[in-house]
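Reopening this ticket.

The earlier resolution said the output was attached, but the attachment link was broken on my side. Pasting everything inline this time so it's all in one place.
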Amino acid sequence: MYLALVEADDETASVEIDAAPMSGDGASAAADDKPLATRAMAESGNSPLPASLSVAAQSRVESVGCPHCASQRLHRWGRVSDLPRYRCCACRRTFNGLTGTPLAHLRKKDRWEAQAEALITGESVTKAAKRCGVAGSTAFRWRHRFLAAAAFDKPARLSGIVEADETFILESFKGKRSALPRAARKRGGKAAKRGLSAEQIPVLVARDRSGATTDAVLPGLNRASVTAALGGVVTSDNQLCCDGGKAIVGFARKREIPCQILSSPGGPRPDAPNLHINNVNGYHSRLKEWLRPFHGVATKYLDHYLGWRRTIEVWRDGARPANWLLSAVGIAQCQ
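Inline output:
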């Protein structure tokens, strides 16, 4: 991708993103052009914003183009909120690198790297607010804005042997102030009934042997819900391993996917030691242990926390604030 700079004053410098390099008399000019992300790094020295945020915003412009019509023909149109502003040559609308992302219209951008660090360490809202120097309500809003895009960062396909199993997380109305269908519980609490009940929310996790993971909060434990979550992601090219749950088995049979039912999930048969669901069960264990310090997660935000955990699993100790900022603006980092 190339940028053609047109002579203009600093406030209305014109930029066009072209899909192919220039030729003829313009070849030498194109050789000096740099990608938007590289240019953002050079400009960040004059901006109060962190360099990682400038790079994330300009990387989105470079990859998506106009957020309104997806055109790649853009003009620089001054600056707004310390970020370069652009005008689309096709629809004539203006935007910056955060337009159309979950981070649009949020303030105090200079503290977003601190918020990203709070996500890396898995801090509570109270600790994140203290780290960022903002109110608790702001830290809560930032958390879910940062996690909104990560919730959709899933693989389009899983490969090879796929392990699938469901786990259950206690339903929570955390944060709801009125019209509760039951008495409020404190600090997570416990279910009123032992075992499975309507209070338990099914979460499906499918994971291949390379570590690629997809998951979904199921509206019900049935074949239709499993099909909506795994359709197209797990295909007849895969070998599916499960513990014999009717919903997953029904999905596999309907889609003609080879399915290995393990009567003893923790111990594969001697004749097929590679067919087991130990990996997905281990993931369930790590997920629940990681959720424990939050003392209950609101069910309506559960998909955000699943995306948060998937991201941590992929990056492990290599996560950096710059990675989270790229993820938050919708540039897939994990899958």
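Reporter confirms the inline version is readable. Residues 155-317 form one domain. Strands lie at 2-6, 14-18, 74-80, 83-88, 94-96, 161-170, 200-208, 213-217, 239-242, 259-261.
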